[in-house]
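Lab meeting notes turned into a lecture example. A postdoc, R.K., suggested we walk through two folding results consecutively so the class can see how the record format repeats. The first protein's sequence and structure tokens come next.
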Amino acid sequence: MSFSEIAADCEGTIIISCDKVTPESIICKILGVESLPENVVSKSNLKGFQWSFTTKYYSSKINLYAIEEKAEFNPAFSESIKAIIFYFDSQKLSSYEDVLSWMPFLKNIDAEVQLLVCNDCLDENVDPALKRKNILKWCVENQYELVELNPPPENEEEEEEDFKSAKGYDRVVEALQSYTWANFVMTDEKSVDESLKQENAEDPKETESKIASNETKSSISENTKENLSASKGEGFKTVNVDEEDEEDEEELDLEEELLNKVLKGEDPGGESFDALFSRFASMKEKASGLTGEDRKKYAEKVAVAFWRAMGGDEDEIEGLNDSD
């Protein structure tokens, strides 16, 4: 069966399970409900459920599609899909091979968010193809992010307490909410401004929003990159520490230049908000390296830049210092 008769009324995410865990149960986890709401699309091998969500800064509405069998997607449906979520059993080679078998059916989908989800990715008693370094390598080559629902605990201890990234289904939700969907609607301007001011006044460390940075198709999660660089298997490039430091400094210079342009009233390419949003993770990393007054000033600078990029009223941010 093909999906030629399906034309989505809004953008969406397809959820595919290559294990006994059903796509519907994954959608329940994303929605945070025990049972599914009424579906908006119902075919023999596809069901669609609408998800309306609101974050601190914006609201949006998308469709979550549970797909049971491989089928051809029509152009309109393919164009509406901006995220792909696979669930597989990292201990079974057949489950991983099932993921690979789906790739030809997804070739016409240009998804910005691509997640490969499993319970955990351990190396004990698994086929060589399922070794963690090989799964991570595939993720990098195919621009997927590996999300473990129960990640190894040793990795969590290395993260700074204030900047721990979301885990499990929280990370799935975070990744979906960080993408700028077509019907993106900003939250009430006054509420946003009051929230920003309160964060700067009470605790600068919390200035970063709960939403993650916009992870484009060309980006890979920080956890995936760290795990990959730590792997020593064949085919992996040895990273020169000095070169890595230079690249980090260049990234910071780009962020500083972008912030200054927005604060001066310039709009790089007419897309200053998206540009700022895509570099939010790096700004958060820079903030984590600052302390005291420097951290507060940088938080204010970022807050003002985002506000101006959103076209906010200058009177609403009076009192925030953006001259530093």
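The second example is placed directly after the first for contrast:
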Amino acid sequence: MDTLRESFRYGTSPLTSPSLSPPYNAYLFGSHISKSLSPLLHGILFRSLGLSWKFHLVQTTDKGKFLDKVNSSETIGVSITMPNKVTFGLLLEDFTDAAQVIGAVNTSFVRLDSTGKRRYIGTNTDCVGIREVIVQYDSTAVATSKGKPAMVVGGGGAARSAVYALWKWFSPSEIYIVNRLKSEVDDIVKHFTAAMPGIQLRYVADIAIAQSILAPSIIVSTIPDYPPSEPGEILCWQICEKIFGKVEKGLLVDMCYMPSPGTRLVKAANKAGWRTILGTEVLVRVCVAQQVLWTERLPNQQGVSEAIAAITQPQSAAKL
């Protein structure tokens, strides 16, 4: 509940009814979200808490439409996905430390200032989802990963959330970064060296480096599940295979779940003897982290289990 406790640094609760009975609304703003799993998951989680709140999709990049919904007294929170994470995030009134360090907003929640005015706070719950899915899978992970290397595959916004989560909560000796473009890795290294002083990041640029380094205890992959075709993509795949082939085995968290959570990377890791966590489970934990901020309640574990079960069945491709 540290996420909720820290949220009150930005103001007091907007929830005035002990029963939380008002029909509050939450929204997802983004492009190409018609098949999003968020309404399903949030609906299950709301009902598990006895709430009649609703979750809606708003497929738009229009800042005016975003502000219209956010400024409604019936809006309790919003989720923001691509391509709005930066542009819509800038419209909010304050940001949590996580959002500032990561440089991207995927969630907004409401708090009241000293005069009772609503304030819209931007945060990043992707990093919380990564943390929670790992510790729920292995309660010893924080202790056993301390002082050992970790690894992130990818170079986009989700990769930055993974770097933040691993360094902040799992205390690795260093974080390897595997990515098809060196320029993206350079940007990540530059950004986090300034934002998280003392962080140790290493670009794994080729097979020789992959061969020489220690096996990471945790890997978080953030890349799409497409067959590698470009030279950089092929090299990334070969590096991952080399890492999986090391004697020491660890845990792979694959954030990708399209078109299926059983990605090529998950299958390769399983075959090599690694433990794996699917992207759908990360997605549920991200939604739970959002709901903690909106409902100000601990997650209902039965509801979490129901949400996970609901998306382990074959689903159409979806995007959070």
